[in-house]
Amino acid sequence: MPRIPLVPDRDAGVLGRLAYAFARRRFGEVPEPFAALRHHPRLFWTAAVSESLLERSATVLPARLRDLAVYRTATRVGCSWCVDFGEMLWLHEGLDLDHLRRATADGAPDDPAFDDDERAVLAYADAMTAQPITVTDAQVADLDARLGHAGLVELTQHVAVENQRARANAALGLHAQGFADACEVPVRS
User: Which InterPro entries does the record match to this protein (predicted)?
Assistant: First the structure.
């Protein structure tokens, strides 16, 4: 149960209701982080625009690596909402959910079920999420060689943003909504 009430449609305002309708059309229901953020309309729109721009600009890193790093970050922080939503995105990419779920194990960055790029991405997500951050020069050099400058920057940005999302959602008590289990969630085209 969320630690604060979620803003219902009737209290979301005209633009908020339009945003809620868009979210329902895209995801089947209003994501709880949306409804929590609606308490602060300016931050709501800042987050909505930021997320939209991040999604549109993420064109260098293969989706499976990006989603794997984001999922690993969500599991390390402990955000069940982000884990659930990440599983839905993974399924929409047509990827194997069992493979993704292996990323939750403590030894995932060393698991031979993952390829070299995936293991490097998992270890980097862990190092960025650790307190304090444990990223090394060797990790950055390795990922730069694998992904290029733009790919490394994109990976870094996604892990950083997921840390922000996951920590905010966990702090507000937002939990899984069943996105990964809901067959009616439309696949993005």
Answer: AhpD-like (IPR029032)
Cβ atoms 28, 182 nearer than 8 A: yes
Question: Are residues 71 and 46 part of one domain?
Answer: no
pLDDT digits over 63-75, tens only?
999 999 999 999 9
CA neighbor of 5 nearest in space, from 29, 30, 27, 38: 38
pTM: 0.92
Residue 187 lies in a domain: no
Strand ranges in the chain using DSSP code E only, listed in sequence order: none
Total number of domains in the chain:
2
Tokens representing 136? 């090394």
- Structural domain containing residue 28: 9-57
Is the domain of 78 the same as that of 126?
A: yes
